[in-house]
Structure formats: C-alpha cells, structure tokens
Amino acid sequence: MGLLFSLWLYNQKPIIMEDVGQLLPTKIKEVHGATSEAELQKWVKKSITNGEKISVAGMQHSQGGHTYYPNGVVIDMKNYNKILDYNPNEKTITVQSGATWDDVQKKINPDKLAIRVMQSQSIFTIGGSISVNAHGRDIRYGSLIDTVESFRLLNPEGDIINVSRTENSELFPLVIGGYGLFGIILDVTLYLTNDELYQIRSKNIDYLDYPDYFQTEVMQNEDIRLHIARLSVAPDTLLREMYVTDYELVENQETLTNYSKLKKDTLAAPQKFMLGLSRYSDWGKNLLWELQNKLYVGQDGNYITRNNAMRGDSKFMEYDNPTKTEILQEYFVPVDELIPYLDDLRTVLETEELNLLNITVRYVNKDEEAVLSYAKEDMFALVLLINQGRSKKDIQNTEKVIQKMIDVTLKHDGSYYLPYYSYPTQSQMDEAYPRKKEFFEQKKQYDPNEVFMNLFYKEYSQ
C-alpha cells in the first residue's frame, strides 16, 4: 500500500513550466505532444470538455509566459513538423507549424530558393515565428505577415478552418502576431524567393552618420538586400560607435553553388569566452567590442548566400547560470528619430544599473496589417541582450530600468516588441499598441470561453 501511494504521489508531481527567460516558473497540469492533426484536435476538444485552458508552445523563446498558463494544458508542437507541399516553380511551401526554419531551408536550398523573412537564427518554429510576427535582416520585405499566403487554424471550438486574406480574412491579422490566443496554427503556406549570392560589405561608422548612410547608401542601392548594424555597449564608446554590415548582390550569380552549402551552427569557443567576460566587467565589454569590430569588419569582401546570411549562429549565446538569466528587449524607433533617441537612451544607461551585453540594429519598413503591429512607420529595430539576476529584487531593478527605456522609446514615437518579459506597464502598452483594445475584444469574440490562454494575456488583457 505504501509503495502504491508513493507511486501515486510521484505521478501527481506538479509540472513546472519555464520558457527560455526562466523568470516565470509556473505550475501547469499537463504537456501534450502531437504528431498528427487528429491528436491535436483530440486534445483541444478534450480540454474544451474539461474546461481546461490551453497554451501552445514551440521552442519557447518568447520570454513572457506566452506559452503556458497556471494549471493549464500545454500543447507542444515541436514534433508536428512535416513539410506538406512544396512547389519550386511557384515559389511556395506548405509546412506544419512545428517545423523550424532550418527544416525549410534544408528543403528549398537545393533548388536555389530562400526564405523572404525570418529571424537571425534558424532554430525557431514556423508557428512560433508567425505568432510573434517576426522580422529579420531583409530591408525590402516587412514583417513575416507579408510572406504568409494562408494557414489552417484549429480554433477554440475544436474546428479546423482555412485562413487567408480572402477566407476568414478577419482572423488573418489577429492570429499573425496573436501569440497563440486564437487557436493552434496547424500548417502554413509561405511565399519564397530566390537564393542569391552576396558580397559582405562591413565597416565602422559613427552613430551620427548612420541614418544618412542607411538612407543614401543602403536604401537607394537596390543591390543591397540584407542589412544589420551593431551598436557599442562598451562603456568607453556607449551608443556612439557602430559597425554596419550590408549584403550586396554580386553580378555573377553563376558562382552561387560554390557557397550554397548550408553552414552549421558551431560552438564558437572564443566568442562564448569573450561574451562571458563582458558579462562581468566593463573591461570585458570594451575588449569584446574591439574584437567584434575586427571580426565583423574583417569579413568585408567575403561572399555568402542569402540562406546562410539569414541563419546566424546562436550556440555561443547559450547561458546557464543558477542565479542569473539573459533576457531580450526590442525597441522600434522612426528612422528620423534615431540620433536623439540614442542620446536620450544613453543618458538612461549611464545613470541606471543595467548589464547590457549587446545591441543589434535592423530596419523594418512600415507594416500595419497585423492588429498588434509594431512598425507604424519605417523603423529601426534595436534588439538588446541583457544579463540580470533572478531574485525578486533583481527583477524589480530591471523592471524599473526597462520602463524608463520604454518611456524614452515612446517619447520618440517608437514602440516595443511584445514577446518578452512583462516589464512594460499597461499604459505603456496602450501607447505603443493603439489597437490593443480591439485585439483583446476580438479575442473575447472568437474565444468567449477563453480556451486559449497564456500569462501575456492574463497580464495585459484587463
């Protein structure tokens, strides 16, 4: 009897769910993996019958509890990852939502095709990327919503419906960038583009010169297809020095196949070591910036394919510490506001305690199709990597600084990205996302019983 009771207790052991940020450990009821549409539909209908809340999870790189809910059921999509249809001639592909960008690239790369928009790493699931309406390095396309032709949705009633710009069209801009709150994205049809061979153009630049450089040297050169910049977080040059990297179409595309083998993400020990030093000292930050400058500017003149340029390394950023974690923030600011914005942001960073490790800069053109659109006009996107403690006091300190940074962003007509930890206030979200009320009203219309739930919704839907 004692053994049976012990086994029962073991089987009742609570499941603690965390995302990559590790700041919101939450007790949930169950996790269900699925490999078929029938299984997914079964789990959803069972949860509806039992009055359970459902959250949808991929790689869980959203850091604000977007993929789980207290005492809820988590549907893990990672094994729902087949490629269903591929038409190289029409440049379209249909994939299940648990497939990663790496899966797609491996399929299309032999046919000299590439993805139009994705994040800077290929590790994320397609469903997760669509749920946050991701953007990337391409300066000719907008956010990911631009590249989606259609998708199928398992809705809060347990039914499967087609969604596109012409069929159930009202759901299209709600589900894309909708953080899993309207159902489970089953499979997606994406528009593809040609793989291309680029020559890397990289150089140092003063931050004061960057907006003019971007508008005249980058945007007016049709051969530059991808772009990324990096801002110094080193104390000696904070937000003043930059290096820019442009990917320029080469004239002789016949040599594409010489470079087309997909590169692998390897554990770059020197980069990992230097990033580690920068976590713990200003000296390390200054040294890392000098070495990064030499490394990236040293790539000037090298050749790379579009597919490889879009699959940046991520393993060197892996971090495991029992008392600390690393979070992301992303701020969008109009192109014309960048210089005064950086000056104001620098004032905050010089007076507040924040362990800022990295800032990359991308460009996102105006795209208001998604209800929760972050690009209300042509914007620069600043992605910040922050090292912070996990204690209550550390969380409160980081919250205070981030709210100040968001105030600066809003002052310059900017906005911030929603997949991250819930540091922003309600009023900050109201200002950054003027269609917030409409989004949550539509959520209640399409899911009146709130079947699909997560901590992001719990925090901001009031």
Give an overview in words:
The chain is 31% helix and 26% strand. The protein has 462 residues and is an alpha+beta fold. The strands form 4 sheets. An 8-stranded antiparallel sheet has the order 15-12-14-13-17-18-16-19, sandwiched between helices. Strands 6, 7, 8, 9, 10 and 11 form a 6-stranded antiparallel sheet that branches. The N terminus is likely disordered. α7 runs antiparallel to α8 and α10 packs antiparallel against α11. The longest helix has 20 residues. The termini are far apart. β6 and β7 form a beta hairpin. It is built from 14 helices and 19 strands.
Mean pLDDT: 92
What class would the helix/strand composition place it in? alpha+beta
Helix proportion range: 25-40%
The radius of gyration is 22 Å
| Strand runs, count | 19
The major beta sheet can be summarized as: 8 strands, antiparallel
N-end to C-end Cα span: 48 Å
Shape call = globular
Keywords:
six-stranded antiparallel beta sheet, disordered N terminus, single chain, alpha+beta
A few lines on this structure:
This protein is of the alpha+beta class and 462 residues long. It has helices at 2-11, 37-50, 101-108, 126-131, 172-175, 210-218, 269-280, 282-297, 306-309, 338-351, 392-411, 426-432, 436-446, 455-460, and strands spanning 15-17, 26-28, 30-33, 54-57, 73-76, 83-87, 92-96, 113-115, 148-154, 160-164, 184-194, 197-206, 224-231, 241-249, 303-305, 324-334, 355-364, 379-389, 415-416.
